[in-house]
Amino acid sequence: MRNEYAADLGLSEADLAADWHTQFGRWFADAVAAGLPEPNAMVVGTADAAGRPSGRTVLLKGYDPEGFVFFTNHESRKGAEAAANPYASLVFPWFPMQRQVVVAGPVERIDRAETEAYFAVRPRGSQLGAWASTQSRVLPDRAALDAAYRAAAERFADVERIPAPPHWGGLRVRPESVEFWQGRASRLHDRLRFRLTGPGTWAVERLAP
């Protein structure tokens, strides 16, 4: 299967914002305005201590000049890999707009206060789910998960503000590179990358498609 990309779209150096986070904000706003389903969905790639990679789709929950933040069970596969090999990649696949954003950089846990603040605004069902799920571990059946959820609901039945589990929290990817990819005709795509060259210093590079 092959779809040809639009000939009249493009991304030039003159189109770019002065920094990656402003440029990301522009494209993210475009994705939201276009009505893309879950425009904050991104593929997170990690690798274990032996370098064996894994990937999965998660939701971006915040970004700023410091990086991109998402939340997870730290004992999950991605949480364990981020601890053992603290480097990650992110891909935002905005296919209907013929765009991608590709990020790479070290990953770190965010401050616990930030985790608690975000956890407090999650729906109660999601809060209970974070307590119930031993993410990435083998379950005997669905009934075991449902039972764990019921147990969490009973445990916190009289608790108005459920705390975040100690094993659950946010991860921040601090980018060393952020690539903005715009599809073009004949597979001659535009790829412009912000690359960290020193503390607070970025170079803009055009990559061959």
Largest sheet: 10 strands, antiparallel
Could you report the average pLDDT, rounded to the nearest whole number?
A: 95
- Uncertain residue ranges: none
Order of helices and strands: HEEEEHEEHHHEEEE
- First and last CA, distance: 19 Å
Rg over CA atoms: 19 Å
The number of helical segments is 5
Binned, the helix content reads: 25-40%
The quaternary organization reads as single chain
Q: Please state the overall shape, judged from the principal axes of the Cα atoms.
A: elongated
Q: Structural class, from helix and strand content? A: alpha+beta
Q: How much β-strand is present in the residues?
A: 25-35%
Q: How many strands appear in the DSSP assignment?
A: 10
Describe the structure.
With about 210 residues, the protein is α+β, with helices and mostly antiparallel strands. Helix content is about 25%, strand content about 35%. It is built from 5 helices and 10 strands, in the order αββββαββαααββββ. It has helices at about 20-35, 75-85, 110-120, 125-130, 140-155, and strands at about 40-45, 55-60, 60-65, 65-75, 85-95, 100-110, 170-175, 175-180, 190-200, 200-205. Strands 1, 2, 3, 4, 5, 6, 7, 8, 9 and 10 form a 10-stranded antiparallel β-sheet that branches. Strand 8 and strand 9 form a beta hairpin. Helix 4 (about 125-130) crosses helix 5 (about 140-155). The longest helix has 14 residues, at about 20-35. It is elongated. The two termini are about 20 Å apart. The mean pLDDT is about 95.
